[in-house]
Amino acid sequence: MSKKNRHLIELGRTGLTRFGGYIYEEWLAELQGSKGALIYKKMADSDAIIGGMLFAFREICKSAPWFAVPAGNEPEDLEAAKFLESCLYDMASPWPSTVDEILSMLPFGWAYLETIFKFRRGPKQKSPKYRSQYNDGRIGWLKWAPRAQESFNQWIYDEETDQLLGLSQTPAPDYQERRIPLDKALHFVTTSAKGNPEGRSILRNSYRSWYMKTNIEDIEGMGLERDMVGYPTLYLPLEIMKRETPEAEEAYQEYFDLITNVRRDEAEGLLLPSVFDDHGNRLYEFKLTSSPGVRQFDTSRIISRYDTRIALTIMADFLLLGQQKQGSYALSETKARMFYQALTSVLDNIAETINSQAVPTLFELNPWWDLEELSYIAHGKVELPNLEVLGEYIQKLTKAGIKLFPDERLENHLRGLADLPIRDTKHEPARTEERPAFSEQDQRQGAKPELDDAEEAEA
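Given the sequence above, the corresponding structure tokens read:
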């Protein structure tokens, strides 16, 4: 083999721990595959801190603007970008809902959406395969249909090249196996280490803290109930405790069930026989022993510690500032900025996946333009600027001698940051340093233009 040809051949492998269509990079068995998906779903749905953080992730990401960017300044490039953006907002599901489905990769580590196309034949078509806001006969996206992570069966690989070919699932309600090739889908992952198709859940590092916190909360709930109700104690005759006869065994089981199910609720009450021995001692007696005092461990502080650790794993601990009556404004600004940078990285990841997996196929099905480069999808900023800091920055630039105005684009940009009306420059006369021209109406009325002293002397 020549040296030149050797560089064209792949010699090594990624080292991904894979057997058949199953990935074994996760060393905890309960977090592998579909079992792990169920646990991450439980974490996201049942924990208040995790749910709040994921809500912040989703809602902030959905508020970011998305648009198409032309690859050049030629008319074909501009028209292609306009078409691409129209397809993005012409799907059966609103774009924010689609982003919501894509962001399911955050708790699960990956998201798999099947791309389904349609013919754009106008809004009056009954069939969704043809209904569109546009009637240009082109092919657009009907929807990016989500495929639930819990329905995952296995990944489909080319065993010779380690190339991922698709996904197999057994979804409800019929639980029949379905195979979705990768070239007909969008595959989003949070991280691509070793080419792992399952990515890595952003909740992975918080699993232990969530597990400990959940168990402590359960114990705390049981302890609270016992402290409020009291610890139940039931005294029984010795012949029942010995359980030497079938009647004694049956009575023992009845009283055992009774003592273990004592609750303070609408069915409160206990009925016991009034029986005494020869010495006048009561044979049956029920007592509620109260707690002797304050517990040694402060469960509130322990749970708060685990909440902080959970928030730290995705840099959202700034949401907890002030809960422990500590934390400065400067610290919250720094942490919030890091959080927004993480969100921007997530959106960058989504945009790159769309541009590499969805956009080329769309233009391949619509060969209307001869493009050297394809338009691409981009997103706007997710972080709102601090107008006070921005104002000080502009003042410093002005004092340094930088001339900012008149500049319509800069002015409209600053207006947009402050959510002010945008200046309409299309229907306004161009700004010049010269005085406005003397109108024809004034000339017909015999009026004369006003002149300054120098112009009047020259006249």
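Residues 431-445, 454-459 have pLDDT under 50 and may be disordered. Try to locate this feature in the token string yourself.
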